[in-house]
Fold:
Amino acid sequence: MHTDRNKFGFIVHCRNTRELRLVLARYARAPLKACLPERRLKQFCLQRKMIEDIFTFRRVVTDCGQVCQGKAFCLLMTPEQMLENQSLATDLVVEASNRAHTWGAEAAQRCPAAVTTGNSLTAYASLVQFDRVMQRLEVDPTRHKVAIIGFPGSITLVIAKILHERGIDLVLVSRRQTAFLKRFIASIDDGTASVETTQQIDDALERCRLVFTATSTGQLINQQQLLPGSVVFDIAQPKDVVACQPPRRDVLILDTGLISLPTATTDRYRYSGLGVNDIPSCLGETMTLTLEQRWENFSLGRELHLPKVEEIGRLAEAQGFVFDSFRTFQKPIPDAQFDLARTALQAHN
Structure:
């Protein structure tokens, strides 16, 4: 395996103001600017169109003995800034892609580097974790309604399709009743399971104890809104569920979409404050495609292809990526918490 060819670039953005300050101080070497008031801090980063090289995976080894290496490039923009400055955000993504290609990331046809959002493996990992948690809690999800918050993002869209095919009743939370939403419901309205919609998160949480959430802004769900026995699969970055002290003991909140590097990787990486060798699934997809030498655009657009979701999942599992390192607010979930959640949820079956 020629590791000099197996290089990838991973493009991220700051999830909040705290991360803007961290990247400025640690990687841009601008500690004084990192202390600016929030409004001036954001303005400073925006005006300078900043991109920083923040992390290097020097040697990731799979169970098959393959090796890759990669770099993470960070756009100094928060989610809100990206939504408000979409043209600039796009330009910075292209520039970061050029930097990744210059460093050695392989190219796709007509692109500076092969591109993927990583959303296919994120959806796959989320569903694998959902299945394993349901088994562990001894719960039949077809006896519950599942709320999907952040619809119709690409991840929630494909999760909704797959759960509906399994006969699970859904409550889709969408900010607007769009023509796309109506077409989607019409396309799957075959009597397999019910599909309801709402524009209110509170409404969905009052009706559902099983919840997927994947919005783009985060910090939308107060734990006090959750019904006893709720199990929340929080895919969002930044997280949708707000941490609280003391944490509720009668609900289970999972950092969904995280996976772990193959056990054959002996180097220890702490990426973005996660546990040792834990990574976001979107990064895992980038690594998997690199290891497979698939220099192509993969997960793009709103509507992900189900065969590709299944394919990238199989490839990642074959490479040895681990899908059952369950975390809550970046910490391992003790067995006792699963036991409490099982008791609380089964009481409301």
The chain is about 35% helix and 20% strand.
